[in-house]
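Exercise 3.2. Students should predict the tertiary structure of the chain below and write it as structure tokens, then compare their answer with the key that follows.

Predict this chain's 3D structure.
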Amino acid sequence: MARAARAVLWVGAVGALVGGCGASAARVDGARAAGERFERALASGDHRAACRLLAPETIGQLEQDEGKACGEALGAEELPTAGAVRTTEVYGRQALLSLDGDTLFLSQFSGGWKVVAAGCTPQGEQPYQCALKGG
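Answer key:
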């Protein structure tokens, strides 16, 4: 339970960060493209491809929670079906993508942008609540 609370607080902190200053078009485009690839992989049922777009800690948490490899565990998650990206906000190495039907949080790693949380819904003044997140 404490781990879940920390994850929700972390996602809230990331949300506060991404609300700040703007970023270069290349960084915004990179985050948006990674989020779109993740959503396309989910929509097509290619959970292994979607797992390749997840942050390492998110994969670890998912596999620990489900007791299965990422591809199989991700297939068991009830993530929302997302549509088009409405907004992309980037600050530093963090990004928030608001899509029709879902919100994603991403971080930039040496290998590119990775999804750290998905299936996120705003909670008013409280941090986002995410169905999939890293520990």
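Discussion points: The first strand starts at residue 85 and ends at 91. The two ends are 11 Å apart (CA to CA).
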